[in-house]
């Protein structure tokens, strides 16, 4: 039987309409509207698209979106002073600095400057720590989106083997921790570029999360029959057209013949990241206005 396709676009839309109702209720009960400030430094085309999508999604959910566009040659001090201003601005509930930042800017320093109560990406060490302790203020958007895809598609994780391929701070590491936490209860392995016999490790997975950033690296023979395969990768590859083609970290067609569930690229995890960002912005607003 071919895999069930997990439609991230549809699930994200469902979450966004649930959030829109909660935002309307929030506005009725508070003298404030949830507000996300997004900061974009430079002209990176992919970042421009991401930020525009985040703005539109905010507005569609009834939230306020404020975009701060800074030139590519912005200095670290200039960016830090904008963040200090946004930290103090009572109308701003969430702050997002789009990554990557230009090379003259120390990203770590910038992310640490965002007040943890407004850190809707959940990248600040305080928020990483709280999540690690099982007491999250915010969950990081992409791993949280993956959990929602699993839950809303009826994929059981308790007692199952999960393998996360990739050990990034943004996806791999938090994904591993969250899948192992109470409520999700998976037995989790974190694999990466130095893993010996990656194929054999992947074949043990009832839930396989691919977040390595290498186009179609996970092939059909690496998948356990019936597994849930979640593809976090978004890679642009040359297919002879000017824009190229978007592919995931999983070789989709071959994987779909073996897997029980699979997420497409695009239209899988991507839309969920934005939905969870909106969720965090509403959480931030509720905590600040309380
Ligand atoms: N660049 C790529 N993904 C992300 C993300 O989730 N948050 C931010 N701020 N920048 C990104």
Task: Explain how this protein is built.
With 290 residues, the chain is α/β, with parallel strands linked by helices. It folds into two domains: 85 residues, Leucine Dehydrogenase, chain A, domain 1 (Rossmann fold), CATH 3.40.50; 130 residues, Rossmann fold. It is built from ten helices and eleven strands. The chain has a six-stranded parallel β-sheet with strand order 1-11-8-7-5-6. It has a three-stranded parallel β-sheet with strand order 3-2-4, sandwiched between helices. The chain has a two-stranded antiparallel sheet with strand order 9-10. A hairpin with a 7-residue loop joins strand 9 and strand 10. Helix 1 packs parallel to helix 10 and helix 6 packs across helix 10. The protein starts with a strand and ends with a helix. 43% of the residues are buried. Bound molecules: guanine. Homodimer. It catalyses: (6R)-5,10-methenyltetrahydrofolate + H2O = (6R)-10-formyltetrahydrofolate + H(+); (6R)-5,10-methylene-5,6,7,8-tetrahydrofolate + NADP(+) = (6R)-5,10-methenyltetrahydrofolate + NADPH. Pfam families: THF_DHG_CYH, THF_DHG_CYH_C. Keywords: Amino-acid biosynthesis, Histidine biosynthesis, Hydrolase, Methionine biosynthesis, Multifunctional enzyme, NADP, One-carbon metabolism, Oxidoreductase, Purine biosynthesis. Pathway: One-carbon metabolism; tetrahydrofolate interconversion.
